[in-house]
Amino acid sequence: SLAYYALASEESRNCPLLMVRTYKYQSFTYLDMYATSEALKYQIKALEIQQAIYDSQDQIADTLFNIGVIYRTQLRSKTDLSLDYFKRALNIYEELQKNEDVIRCYHAMG
After folding, report:
1. Tens digits of per-residue pLDDT, 58-89?
2. Residue 65 region, left (φ>0) first, then alpha (ψ -120 to 50), else beta?
3. For the chain, which has fewer Cβ within 10 Å, the N-terminal or C-terminal residue?
4. What does pTM read for this prediction?
């Protein structure tokens, strides 16, 4: 599937939202393969694009949450970083009054 994501990346290079989606899917594939650093790299790439194009705040919060999960579950020595990403996501979810996602952040941080 990574080969297809590489093709999708190439085809969507002029459409930032498609690039974000492709990077996030690549990240999840790398997580399934226990390639944590690659998974993190693609979530961060997605976040950078989202911030550059002013993507919707809930989508940015979802990516921040994903990065927090990677740090918490895969890179246990990076607990401080996971909390930072969870708190950033939490702040956005609270502003948007997305209560289920607020609860999800509290669970992840707890």
Report:
1. 999 999 999 999 998 876 767 889 999 999 99
2. alpha
3. C
4. 0.88
Half-sphere exposure of 72 (CA within 13 A, CB side): 17
Type of residue at 29: T
All residues at 6 or more sequence positions from 71 whose CB lies less than 8 Å from its CB, including other chains: 40, 78, 79, 81, 82, 85
Output the CA–CA distances (angstroms, integers) from residue 101 to 15, 29, 61, 92, in the order listed. Answer: 27, 23, 9, 10
Cite the DSSP H helix spans in the chain.
Answer: 2-11, 16-32, 36-52, 57-73, 79-96, 99-109
List, for the chain, all residue ranges whose pLDDT scores fall below the cut of 50: none
SS3 87: helix
Let me know: does 40 contact 69? Beta carbons within 8 Å: no
- Encoded tokens for 38: 């690659």
